[in-house]
Amino acid sequence: MRRLPAVALTALALAGCARGRAGPPDLILTGGRIFTADAGRPWAEALAIRGSRIVAVGTTDSLRRLAGPRTRMWNVGGRTVIPGLNDAHAHPGPELRGTMLAAATGDGSLLEVARSLAAAARRRPRGTWLFATVGDRVLDDPRANRFLLDSIVPDDPVVLESWSGHAAILNSATLGALGIGHDTPDPLGGHYGRVPGSGGGVLDGRMTEYAWWSARRRLASSVPDSASRADFRRYAEAAARFGITTVQDMNTALTTARAVALLRAADVPIRWRVIRFPMTRPEGRDLADTRTAAADHGGRLDVSGTKYILDGTPVERGAAMRRPYADRQGWRGELDFPPETLQAIIREALVSRDQLMVHAVGDRAITVLLRTLAAAAPESTWRALRPRIEHGDFLAPELLPLARRLGVVVVQNPAHFSIPELMHRRFTPDVAGAAQPLRSLLAAGLPIALGSDGPMNPYLNIMFAVTHPMNPAEALSREQAVLAYTRGSAYAELAERETGTLAPGMLADLAILSQDIFTVPLGELPKTESVLTLVGGKAVYDAGVVQ
User: Fold this and answer.
1) Do residues 353 and 451 both lie within one domain?
2) Residue 397: inside a domain, yes or no?
3) Distant-in-sequence, close-in-space partners of 108: CB < 8 Å, separation ≥ 6
4) CA atoms of 163 and 391, how far apart (whole Å)
């Protein structure tokens, strides 16, 4: 910690108070190790809060001088304090109602899935929806189709969803419940699988990209509001227990209007950003969802940003690549949208000045996106709007200067780093060796943020970020990872003047942790929780150990 004379520190603290409402702080935290994420003063001993904001950060002695007769003095017992974590890419739900087959998750084989389905069908009442999460072993098996599922569960709806979220396999009962028939045309950006040799008319039960997301949204719309509200509330409470104070919701499951209504009714205790995710139809995009107005519910609920998905992921070989996949001859993935659609999306972002977020994984998808942005408006315009690339797994080195000039923010998800075996099957060694850049993005001057897009546990994701099983040379330091999860994520939502750092004038969003995430053994990181989480100076989770 930078050393300054006590008089100077007191003057800084008093200046912080002067910028807020007059009077002593309501609360002063002492006795800890405070990581502020503030470049000018990354570490401190104590922090003072008045109302919803931080009024001073400094040494214990300097802040004690600010205390009044009603100021609460909390000793955090040597614990580490960090800014509230901001999950920059989350999928909170709500959960679909039915039976989730725990034995058929991850990368189970088709035989394992079939056995689990058969067992569940025998145990569950008729009409129960059956869901399973599957991996590439099932997706790559040509026998995995609606006919096999119908032979196991002929009458009850069955959904096998890829854990990537970009593909699914449905049985006939599910297709019928959704009103999807052999004559249903593909929506823009998505595909219904068809039986080879059937003239393109017979559904095989597979669906990808916008075909699946449109179907899944219809499934989610059948969940009762009371259940969806409870799901959101549970998610927010679990997040607060981890010290997450902001969630940026990639709202694929619901219309924006319904998500906002449910979140207001659920009265979630943390900050929640709802990001618009328009669906598509055969004739084009459905823009109704992009017109949902911004919302503010006690300063915690925000509607901003619009997300589109330009390609898939390596799991289902959907990432649009410049070179063919190593395990499918001649196949390079594909773009979800033609050039004219992407150009229209970008024009709309320029008119609305709403932040544009584009899922782009493959190097071909990223190249097309960056060049289309550059052709549509001056670099200075984009720097103000901060377009985001979600994931950017194959953001090639030669594209980094253009991305930087355009002010692009890259939001990465470290849980994706945990599949090196699959990545090495999908790509040649030189392509796989350059996958999922992170450290090199920082070195090139690109702002980065971290989000879950999978397991919520931020300390598990920090562990993946600082080990990077896929590409260890791209690993971050612990401090860099925490910065990306706090200040970086705030910057990614244009909120860095309000949240993301612990400094005078900033909102008092913070977490006091159960262990020091900067020093514990790496394998211990996922065991971390918050013992006290504040949002706007108010406790939203309290384990009762700080007083």
Assistant:
1) yes
2) yes
3) 116, 134, 135, 137, 138
4) 16
Least confident of 118-132, 146-160, 387-401, 440-454: 118-132
- CA–chain centroid gap for 281, Å, is 25
pTM above 0.90, yes or no: yes
Q: Which residue do the tokens 């227990």 mark?
A: 241
CATH code for the domain of 158: 3.10.310.70
Torsion 209-215-217-223 (CA) sign = negative
- Residue-wise pLDDT for 76-92, tens only, equals 999 999 999 999 999 99
Give dist(CA 410, CA 507) in Å, integer.
24
Sheet strands (E) in 69-157: 72-75, 80-83, 85-90, 99-100, 130-134
Q: Tokens in use for 126?
A: 């008729």
Q: How far apart are CA 493 and CA 509, in angstroms?
A: 16
Residue 72 counted as domain residue: no
Residue 371 structural domain: 310-455
* pLDDT tens-place string over residues 159-214: 999 999 999 999 999 999 999 999 999 999 999 999 998 877 899 999 999 999 99
Token duo for residue 421: 């075996």
Tokens of 50: 């008045």
Q: What is the largest CA-CA distance in the chain?
A: 83
Give the C-alpha distances (Å, rounded to integers) separating 428 from 316, 327, 434, 472, 503.
Answer: 16, 9, 10, 17, 46
State whether 445 and 343 are in the same domain. yes
How far is the C-alpha of 270 from the C-alpha of 504, rounded, in Å?
21
**Domain for residue 50, yes or no?**
no
Measured CA to CA, the distance from residue 179 to residue 498 in angstroms comes to 46
Residue with tokens 């590409």: 471
Separation CA 89–CA 95 (nearest Å): 17
pLDDT over threshold 80, residue 127: yes
Q: Which of 403, 436, 455 is the last residue of a domain?
A: 455
Q: How far apart are the first and last CA of the chain?
A: 25
Cα 321 to Cα 314: distance, rounded to the nearest angstrom:
10
What is the average pLDDT across 315-324? 97
- The tokens for 408 are 């692009």
CA dist., res. 253 & res. 237, Å (int):
20
